């Protein structure tokens, strides 16, 4: 794996990241939450698997994820970085504080839904009233 | 395949070194619109989030170090040694606390000393200033008094007349015993 000009040669740097490694088949993704060197391929050799995530909802409509919190604490204590989706997942799980963009995304969605409902309600009322009046 | 329609532009047919098409000559690429209030809110949230994250990381780091230390100690020595070590560490802590207390006492006393000295110096300086001012006041008053006796161009004539009218005799005789005689031939 270490050739003369490979990106994994020692002497330049690289850090541990906790990120999602994609696996599965066509139209059926499956993520493994993995602690790996940042310079490795996404699905390449990792240091340790810390959990998994199934992005497709199951029969009961739930998205299932598994986490190894003990080892997560160890790796975070050793100074591992987190990728954004990993941070969001851990925030939703309650291990870390909620990511700001989760909250912001939820607010934006709510505002958009309200805006869509109000124009439906207002033209519906506006078209109904003149109809009843006249 | 390269000819498939894409929702987001990606490099299909052209490499990054090919020039853009003529139809894109007037294209102006703008960044996505940003709501400033939302931006402030989001920045504040990020700041808090990062604060919490760094605190958590510190916690985990301390945990990991503690575990490593315990492992090392357990690998090295027996329980008695560990007990001994803990006892000695506690005693060391107490000693440190005692020394700290003593040092703080000393520092506090020195500070008080300093303050007292400073206030003394300030008082002395104030007193000297007052004395100096008083001296100057006295001199000024004295000069004012003497100024009444000065000879001015207006007084000149009168004073000269006065001097000429009252001749003073400065002559006197003295002998070796120190007896002075002021009565002379002139007066």
TrEMBL record, chain A:
GO cellular component terms attached to this protein's record: mitochondrial inner membrane; mitochondrial small ribosomal subunit
Keyword Mitochondrion attached: yes
Family matches, as Pfam families: Ribosomal_S16
GO BP terms in the entry: mitochondrial translation
InterPro entries: Ribosomal_bS16, Ribosomal_bS16_dom_sf
SUPFAM superfamilies: Ribosomal protein S16
Subcellular location: Mitochondrion
Keyword RNA-binding: no
PANTHER family: 30S RIBOSOMAL PROTEIN S16, SMALL RIBOSOMAL SUBUNIT PROTEIN BS16M
HAMAP family with a match to the protein in the record: Ribosomal_bS16
Protein family according to the UniProt entry: Belongs to the bacterial ribosomal protein bS16 family.
Name of the protein in question: Small ribosomal subunit protein bS16m
Biological source species: Agelaius phoeniceus
TrEMBL record, chain B:
InterPro entries: Ribosomal_mS26
Keywords annotated in UniProt: Mitochondrion, Ribonucleoprotein, Ribosomal protein, Transit peptide
Main location: mitochondrion
Comp. bias intervals (Basic and acidic residues): 95-123
GO CC, alphabetical: mitochondrial small ribosomal subunit
Cellular location(s): Mitochondrion
Protein name (Swiss-Prot/TrEMBL): Small ribosomal subunit protein mS26
Organism per entry: Molothrus ater (Brown-headed cowbird)
């Amino acid at each position: 794996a270490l050739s003369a000009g490979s990106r994994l040669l020692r002497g330049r740097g690289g850090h541990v990241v906790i990120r999602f490694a994609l696996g599965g088949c066509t139209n059926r993704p499956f993520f493994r939450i993995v602690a790996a060197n940042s310079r490795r391929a996404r699905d390449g050799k990792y240091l340790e698997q810390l959990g998994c995530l199934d992005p497709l909802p199951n029969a009961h409509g739930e998205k299932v994820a598994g986490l190894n919190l003990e080892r997560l604490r160890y790796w975070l204590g050793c100074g591992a970085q987190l990728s954004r989706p990993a941070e969001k997942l851990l925030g939703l799980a309650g291990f870390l504080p909620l990511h700001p963009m989760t909250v912001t995304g939820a607010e934006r969605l709510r505002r958009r839904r309200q805006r869509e409902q109000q124009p439906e309600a207002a033209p519906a009322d506006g078209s109904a009233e003149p109809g009843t009046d006249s | 395949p390269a000819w498939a329609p894409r929702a987001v532009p990606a490099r299909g047919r052209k490499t990054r070194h090919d020039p853009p098409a003529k139809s894109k000559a007037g294209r102006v690429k703008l960044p996505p619109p940003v709501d400033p209030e939302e931006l402030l809110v989001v920045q504040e949230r990020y700041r808090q989030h990062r604060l919490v994250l760094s605190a958590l990381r510190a916690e985990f780091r301390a945990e990991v170090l503690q575990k490593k230390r315990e492992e090392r100690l357990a690998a090295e020595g027996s329980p008695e040694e560990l007990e001994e070590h803990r006892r000695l560490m506690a005693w060391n802590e107490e000693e440190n606390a005692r020394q700290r207390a003593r040092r703080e006492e000393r520092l506090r006393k020195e500070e008080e000393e300093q303050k007292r000295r400073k206030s003394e110096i300030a008082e002395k300086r104030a007193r000297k200033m007052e004395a100096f001012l008083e001296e100057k006041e006295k001199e000024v008053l004295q000069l004012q008094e003497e100024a009444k006796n000065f000879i001015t161009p207006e007084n000149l004539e009168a004073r000269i007349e006065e001097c000429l009218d009252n001749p003073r005799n400065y002559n006197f005789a003295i002998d070796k015993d120190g007896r002075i005689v002021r009565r002379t031939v002139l007066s």
